Amino acid sequence: MSLVQASNLTKTYRVGDIDVPAIKGIDFAIEASSFVAFVGPSGSGKSTLLNMVGCLDHPSSGTLKVLDTDIATLDRRAAARFRGEHIGFVFQDFNLIPVLTVFENVEYPLRMVQEWPAAKRREQVLRMLDAVGMSDQADKRPDQISGGQKQRVAVARALVSQPKLVLADEPTANLDHDTAYRILELMKKMRDEFGTTFIFSTHDPKIMGEAEVTFTLEDGRLMTNSNGGRHV
23, 83, 27: which is closest to 55 by C-alpha? Predict the structure, then answer.
């Protein structure tokens, strides 16, 4: 069974008295341990789609199943719990909490959503920091590390709760060329080690080149689905 499966999926927003369709009846399936990109120009619907997969928004019609759970059936509290237990997020602007240390930022999901005992939390956070090469920066705050290091911390935070799925919205947009490739290599390494599925929303050619499956969106419709990509 697919990790993510959509059938005749739509999303329409109400703006004043006008209905604005963002996603227009699309179908797709994503398998476990995949490295997938949704690509397309601004306004194509890729961020809307990522938000629905991440339980941040509900479909207007059709079905969207993530880990065999119909997203449309989840109320706000159930959606938050589902996200906390199964989904990690990586953002283009990192979204690290400035007053917390690197260690505390990575630990945050375990404290807020998953009530892990302190000793188990520490062990897991240190494991993730070691995996992304940030163990020696654990006591620093976000303003004391580089952009590439911030994104490494964001990857560790996304993976610390051992989610089946990580959603990354333009994760390389604020990184230089070489750093962006290193982050993508890190993500593939983490996918291979932990079996996590990564889904990107992007228009970055670097991610498109690394993706093993690419879905192209245009004006809310799924135009193409291609397999391939360059393996790191």
Answer: 83
Strand pairing of 69-70 and 61-66? antiparallel
Cα gap 55→89, rounded to integer Å? 11
Q: Using alpha carbons, select from 135, 87, 150 the residue that is nearest to residue 113.
A: 87
Query: CA separation (Å) from 88 to 101, 162, 163, 200, 230?
Result: 19, 8, 6, 12, 24
- 215: tokens are 């879905």
Closest Cα to residue 88, out of 162, 175, 34, 18? 162
Report the chain's terminal Cα–Cα distance, integer Å.
Answer: 27
Task: Say what angle helices 102-112 and 147-159 make with each other, to 10 degrees.
Answer: 20
Pairing label, strands 213-218, 35-39: parallel
pLDDT tens, 42-81? 889 999 999 999 999 999 999 999 999 999 999 999 998 8
Query: What is the rounded distance in angstroms from the CA atom of residue 216 to the CA atom of residue 207?
Result: 13
User: Which domains are delineated in the chain?
Assistant: 4-227 (3.40.50.300)
pTM of the model: 0.86
